[in-house]
Amino acid sequence: MSQPEVLLALRKLAQKKHVSQEDFAEFNKFVDDLSYDQMESLVSDRLDMADGLQIISYLFTGLSMKNTSQKKRIKLFEYLLKETQEKDLSPRCVSGILTWLAIESINCRSPHLIRVCDMCVDFVAKTANLKEQDGTSCCPKIF
C-alpha cells in the first residue's frame, strides 16, 4: 500500500472508530499492522502540516497495548521528542506534540520513562555554549 493510500485508509478508519466496537477493532488492527517505518514516514512528511497533529493522534490512539505495538509507541515517542528539538517547528506544532507525549507518558513503563529523561539530559549536554545561555534556552522544550 502506498503512503497516500495508507493515509487515506487511516483517516477513513479513524473517522468511524467511534461508531461501533467492530469499527474500533478494525482501526486498531490497521494501526497495529503498520510498520514503524510507515508510521515514521507518515509523521515526518506531515509533521509541520495542518493535519500533522491529527495523524499523531490517530497513530497513538490506534496502537494497542500488545508488546509489539508498545515498542512502536516508544519509538514513535522518542522520534517525536527528537523532532521537537531538531526541526524548526511552529510553537503550535511543538505544543501539540508535547501535549501528546505528556498524555502518552502515562502509558510508558519506568524503563521507557527513564530513557525519555535521558534523552532530555543528552540534549542539554550536547547544546553548545551552555555557559552563555540561560536555563530556558538550553533545556529541552519538553521540560
What's the short version?
It comes from Lygus hesperus (Western plant bug). The chain is an all-alpha fold.
Break the fold down into its secondary structure elements and pairings:
Layout: H1 3-15, H2 21-33, H3 36-46, H4 52-62, H5 67-86, H6 91-105, H7 110-126, H8 135-138
Helix pairs in contact: 2-4, 3-4, 4-6, 5-6, 5-7
Shape: globular
Mean pLDDT: 83
Count of alpha and pi helical runs: 8
**Structural class determined from secondary elements:** mainly alpha
pLDDT < 50 stretches = none
**How many strand units?**
0
Number of domains: 1
Strand content: under 5%
The end-to-end distance, rounded to whole angstroms, is 38 Å
Characterize the biggest β-sheet.
none
Helix % is: over 70%
Give, in order, the helices and strands. HHHHHHHH
Determine Rg (CA atoms, Å): 16 Å
Describe what you observe in this structure.
It is a single chain. The protein has helices spanning about 5-15, 20-35, 35-45, 50-60, 65-85, 90-105, 110-125, 135-140. The protein is an all-alpha fold and about 140 residues long. It has 8 helices and no strands. The protein has one domain.
Features:
143 residues; globular; Trimethylamine-N-oxide reductase; 73% helix
